[in-house]
UniProtKB/TrEMBL annotation:
Protein's recorded name: Similar to Saccharomyces cerevisiae YER175C TMT1 Trans-aconitate methyltransferase
Keywords: Methyltransferase, Transferase
SUPFAM superfamilies assigned: S-adenosyl-L-methionine-dependent methyltransferases (SSF53335)
Gene3D superfamilies: Vaccinia Virus protein VP39
Source taxon at top rank: Eukaryota
PANTHER family membership: METHYLTRANSF_11 DOMAIN-CONTAINING PROTEIN, METHYLTRANSFERASE TYPE 11 DOMAIN-CONTAINING PROTEIN
Residue ranges of coiled coil: none
Record domain Methyltransferase: where: 41-139
InterPro entries assigned to the protein according to its UniProt record, in alphabetical order: Diverse_substrate_MTase, Methyltransf_25, SAM-dependent_MTases_sf
MF-aspect GO terms: methyltransferase activity
GO process annotations (BP): methylation
Length: 299
């Protein structure tokens, strides 16, 4: 996670290349939530990927605050919020509803002692001290407030299952990006946080679920609310691969200065296997494994 806080980390590329979360999932959150609708805090918000979507899809909340430890990410999120407030056709609602703070996952002091009604953590909880986070969240949430944690990992190309092993080798191969992941966070996420659970003494109505990317092609997963898929040009997928922290660390390692770029090599190999992909504008559908956990603070 430390790479995300470095001043030269590409927060803009991260913001534009990463997938959006599906509207169905926000509808699920809205229906699940049984508390008040005043303040929502999106922890580990990065450049505001989920935060801006929460503003759009959960309009019942009057104020939404994004927090992150990374100053570059918060700077990018604040820039996007300012831009949205100037161009919004909704009476500048985004600019009025949303703000960002540099803050840790357990520090809610910016609320100045007030409670909030929902706390979200998208694609970040694997970096946290999970129990410290859920305890701090329970102390901050109002009665019947909601905690919602979700994330995704390990993309595959829907129409090209013969490339799955190559994808995994890029991410975890000892001669590729494998040694450059911050641990144990990456392994926790790779396991879809199945060994991290919401505490039933703090929360009730707990739901925890996950899906593996290839399962998304099955009719049995059609009702899973967090189906993360995205159609994009192959060039954009290459840009996505280069947004991960391990790639950033690989690039900064002096011993790799004259080494072939592992992401470029992967795409070149895939293009040899499937000639239609030699056109970087060719669109591919990408699927991700994902998980979510939700709970209601006990009154």
């Amino acid at each position: 996670m430390s790479q995300f806080s470095e001043s030269d980390f590409g927060a803009n590329d991260y913001s534009t290349a990463r997938p959006d979360y599906p509207p169905n999932f926000y509808d699920f959150l809205s229906r699940y939530h049984s508390g008040y609708n005043s303040q929502l805090v999106d922890v580990g918000c990065g450049p505001g990927t989920a935060t801006f979507q929460l503003v759009k899809w959960l309009p019942e909340f009057s104020k939404i605050t994004g927090t992150d430890l990374s100053p570059p990410m918060i700077s990018k999120a604040s820039e996007l919020a300012t831009r949205a407030s100037k161009t919004s056709q909704q009476e500048d609602s985004q600019g009025k509803q949303i703000e960002f703070h540099v803050s840790s996952s357990t520090d809610f002091s910016f609320l100045q002692g007030k409670s909030c009604d929902m706390i979200t953590a998208a694609e970040c909880a694997h970096w946290f001290d999970f129990n410290a986070f859920q305890s701090a969240a329970a102390e901050t949430l109002s009665a019947h407030g909601t905690i919602a944690i979700w994330g995704y990992i390990d993309s595959v190309l829907e129409r090209y299952p013969d490339t799955d092993a190559l994808m995994l080798d890029l991410q975890y191969g000892d001669d590729k990006l494998g040694p450059y992941w911050d641990q144990p966070g990456r392994d926790i996420l790779r396991g879809l946080l199945q060994d991290r659970h919401l505490d039933p003494t703090l929360y009730e109505r707990i739901q925890e679920s996950h899906v593996v990317a290839r399962e998304l092609t099955s009719a049995a997963t059609q009702d899973f609310p967090l189906r993360i898929t995205k159609e994009m040009p192959l060039s954009r997928y290459l840009a996505y691969l280069k947004t991960c922290s391990a790639y950033h660390a690989w690039k900064k390692d002096p011993q790799n200065r004259d080494s072939p770029d592992p992401c470029d090599e992967l795409i070149a190999t895939i293009q040899k296997m499937h000639p239609e992909l030699k056109d970087l504008n060719y669109k591919v559908r990408v699927l991700w494994s994902s998980f979510y956990k939700v709970g209601t603070r006990r009154a």
